Amino acid sequence: MTQSRQPKARPQRTRRLRRRTPSNHVGAVVTHRSKADLPTKTCMTCGRPFTWRRKWADVWKDVRHCSERCRRNRVKAGRGVSGARQ
User: Fold this and answer.
1) Does residue 56 form part of some domain?
2) Rounded Cα–Cα distance for residues 10 and 22 (Å)
3) Model's pTM, two decimal places?
4) What domain range is 61 assigned to?
């Protein structure tokens, strides 16, 4: 006697929703600042204005160049803008 087995029905997978903490929870530090309110400087190499970045928070007073490329291509002799676009 052979019995034909029917495959067992698989239970449907349910999606687990991640529990998100609301932005106004007690431990949240929310400081919104518009980009227009951020401090700006002029790049010593290209002469273009650039704005503050979070990674520069501790060294903002020492930042002189807008990018690594400008820092690498800076003028060694003398200070000031060399070939700046206007």
Assistant:
1) yes
2) 36
3) 0.48
4) 36-72
